[in-house]
Amino acid sequence: MKITKIETIWFDAMSNREWEQANPHSRQALPVNLWLRIHTDEGLAGLGETYYVPRAVNSLIHDMYAPLLIGRDPLDIENHWNNLFSLANFFGFAGAETRGISAVDIALWDLAGQYVGQPIYNLLGGRSRDRIPVYNTCVNYGEFRDYTDWMEGRAGELAEDLLKHGIKAMKLWPFDRFGATLAGPTSARGGAPTCRPLQSAGVLGHNLNNEDLKKGIAIVADIRRAVGDKIQIAIEGHARWDLTSATRIARALEPYDIMWLEEIMPPDNPEAYVRLKSAARVPICQSERIFTRYGFRRFIEKNAADIIMPDVAWCGGITEVRKIATLADTYYLPITLHDCIGPVALWASTHLMMHLPNALIMETVRGFIEGWYNDVVTDRISVNDGHLLLGERPGLGTALRTDFTSRPGAHVETTTEEQLRQR
Fold it and tell me: How do residues 174-185 score in pLDDT, each as one tens digit?
């Protein structure tokens, strides 16, 4: 078997006005993703996905990676990863380069599973469990107003609703709104524009006053009043605060027995997290902005994190997440995987979470699973009583919908053997 064609798909965004008229409570998701299919001479096609700057990733895949893949055996997954990473690392690997590698790697594992007729978790060495608990990241999409609920004082009611559906953990980010924005001096622009599509992005905040700290904590307190300790609470930080503010937030959260405090500072300085861990008694989660095992190694070896959270579609794909998880397991640290990305990444992550011995819990967004994920792939991933489940279908277990590439705004680009010969 050999690779004959690399195909990528991404979409134009609708205008903000047009989107908001049709979807007033949801952000556009589809145009931020890139999908990839690796085709072979035996008629099989493996599916991959990544998230953010799809046009940049698209160019990297066709210009840099396709010449290293086409004509080769897709089953040489480890060698492909090494080749792609070595080329990217010659110029600097973190960013779009590793996102592209991640999409390729997921697709290669999907191909391998289809070829041998086994689900990816069996190729990895089999299952450590047959289901994995989920938590709900509380954003809006479709009929779900999860973000609006907790932002408008109904966090306790939201927790009660999640529990009714068997979901026993939730994540929210109550301090982002008090941080600095990307707008710069507002007097120069007449206000602070929204950063689309990353509303949570902002520069480092250095001044969290007492009133705002109390407002953020009040959301967590509301959940505890409503449901007690029946639900776990994760707090996302989106890397928005300096060490002093992060320490104040962490200490204020101590009475509420939170599941973790996630990336409350930028991940560029592990020593700052060591200081934070020594100053407060809340579990620290280090997450998706760290790329590859080389980035996570610093946090694990310096005792700068308690929970490790890679993103399979950002940090290097299935091949690299497996190595990160092994490194974490050596230090007796649990793994949780990030997903606000897309349906293919969730399927890939679930295969990993079924296999990894130190898997803890899987991130999901119930509005996405019930909503736009089903516009992309042929199969809805199974969630039952707050747990993800997988069947025994080969590879990922799903594929792109047959009408996907013919939709309005779709951009499809291919690289073939013939095109490479003509370069």
Answer: 999 999 888 776
